[in-house]
Amino acid sequence: MTGTDGKRDHGGGIDGAVARFGGTRGDWIDLSTGINPLPYPLPDFPPDAWTALPDQGAFEALSDAARAFWRVPGGAALLAAPGASALIARIPALLPAGTVEIPAPTYNEHRAAFRAHGWQEGNGDALVVVHPNNPDGRVWTEAELASDRRLTVIDESFGDVLPESSLVHLAERPGVVVLKSFGKFWGLAGLRLGFAIAHPETIDRLAEMIGPWAVSGPGIATGTVALRDLGWAEETRARLARDAERLDAVMTRAGAAIAGGTTLFRLYDVGEAARWQERLARHHIWTRIFPYSDRWIRLGLPGPEAHWARLEEALA
């Protein structure tokens, strides 16, 4: 998100936490991100995944798997990229700079990208929404997005926990771009894989901006297998929902109030967010607070039982 001083902040930052509170990276539990802590198991890679440039057949297999998983409408095209962030950085260049509305608070990279391309904030040419929103989990409706804007960006990076709420069917419309992130739901953020779904002319322009061979061989191989594994996805949604309820119970017992979130991250009103963050950091548990709120703290889900136990001990 972007604070009143215009600075961008993100989850992560374990090195800074180590410098301030001690320990080593291996000592810390990072709950500052919204990444699935129990990731998809990596497949066995074919040898040429590392040694050869990806061929068209591999890209088509990944595209077919993604289209089926997200039920991409027939009139929309799909582009794989090295992370959703790479697409976010380029989308503002689809149009000459104008005015863009980005309802806040939300993920700060959208605002930064549009500003870098000379756009001004205002209700006009473009609209960007994160669906469900980060950090409060707001879910948008099709009616709320109906307009004559020249560009509408729907960032569904956290949308795989709520597939029934997806607005991917809007991607057939000229000027609508739906973004998907692989790293969060599948827990493989380091793989750097994301997708844009939009009208074919829009995808053609984004493809030119991204360039050839944008996704690595291991990324293509992993994404293709994972997107076809519907059983894992269903089991993961159920497990994330249970763990989100469990985290809510842990935090409310400690005095926090639920303020929103998704089943990949939870947002709490704790009164003095900086004090709560420091309290947990002294137990080498890193969390997320925000420059625009001194009351909100956001936690991702713990993974192994040992991490749950450490969190409860720190809050006791």
Which features characterize this protein?
single chain; 316 residues; Aspartate Aminotransferase, domain 1; Aspartate Aminotransferase, domain 2; 2 domains; 7-stranded mixed β-sheet; disordered N terminus
Q: Please indicate the percent range of residues in DSSP E strands (runs of 2 or more).
A: 15-25%
Report strand order across the widest sheet.
2-8-7-6-5-3-4
Helix content: 25-40%
Could you tell me the radius of gyration in angstroms? Answer: 20 Å
CATH class of the largest domain: Alpha Beta
Annotation field: number of helices: 11
Beta strand count: 13
**Series of H and E elements:** HEHHEHEHEEHEEEHHHEEHEEEH
The name of the CATH topology of the largest domain is: Aspartate Aminotransferase, domain 2
Quickly describe the structure.
The chain has helices at residues 14-21, 48-51, 56-70, 84-90, 108-116, 142-145, 200-210, 217-228, 230-253, 273-281, 305-315; strands spanning 29-30, 77-81, 99-101, 120-121, 126-130, 151-155, 176-181, 194-198, 257-261, 265-269, 285-286, 288-290, 293-300. It has 316 residues and is α/β, with parallel strands linked by helices.
